[in-house]
Specification:
By secondary structure, this protein is α+β, with helices and mostly antiparallel strands. The chain is 48% helix and 9% strand. Helix 1 packs parallel to helix 2, helix 1 packs across helix 7 and helix 3 runs parallel beside helix 5. The longest helix is centred in the middle third of the chain and has 24 residues.
């Protein structure tokens, strides 16, 4: 398998998931400016031009981070990275994946926009993201991970998005439970290996 990523992007989450699943894979870095890799034109991998993309051994390509995470979990059921299909807990996991994709990921994406000034971004954090942080913080005050006591791919996704905080002037110091979650995630070998592979640090 090949995982296409860009340093510091949302390709970190599936990398963490693949390591949790103990799957062998090659990391292929995408240059966002030129949309190229060491292999050539990235648009030949996916016409969307975005990361992550997971290229399977049979040549099939899966895109969209939340879907890539589901695929990894479903094809490694023994690792229990998501509840099994059909279980009530499965739908809770899917709720979290979609919440992170739509409310958190898209919210943070707004803060990277070159079309908004810093004052507008600050208002967006206060008026939009702050309620999301409060919701997450309350939930994590009662749970080690999003689904309770055990890690799931949803945690990898949330961790990935929250690592962007310092890059977009999001201050999480008021959210003690989120901070504990980030520290807890930072102790996982899969997370440490993934950060190292991208040359990233939590500090």
């Amino acid at each position: 398998m090949k995982l296409y990523f860009a340093t510091g992007s949302c390709g970190l989450a599936p990398q963490i998931a693949l390591r949790e699943a103990e799957q062998a894979f090659d990391l292929i870095k995408v240059d966002f400016k030129t949309k190229t890799t060491v292999e050539g034109d990235y648009f030949e991998v996916t016409p969307k031009g975005f990361v992550p993309a997971l290229k399977l051994d049979d040549g099939a390509v899966i895109t969209e981070g939340a879907v890539v995470l589901q695929w990894i979990a479903d094809h490694n059921p023994e690792r229990k990275l998501m509840p099994a299909p059909g279980l009530p807990e499965r739908y809770r996991a899917l709720e979290w994946l979609n919440y992170i994709a739509t409310d958190m990921h898209k919210g943070y994406a707004t803060l990277f926009s070159p079309f908004l000034d810093e004052a507008s971004k600050a208002r967006f954090i206060d008026g939009n993201l702050s309620t999301r942080f409060a919701y997450l913080d309350e939930h994590l005050s009662r749970n080690d991970y999003l689904l309770g006591a055990d890690f799931s791919v949803a945690d990898a996704y949330l961790f990935n998005i929250l690592t962007w905080s310092s890059r977009v002037n999001v201050d999480l110091s008021a959210y003690a439970s989120i901070q504990r979650f980030m520290a807890r995630m930072g102790q996982r070998p899969s997370v440490q290996a993934s950060l190292e592979a991208e040359g990233l640090s939590l500090k």
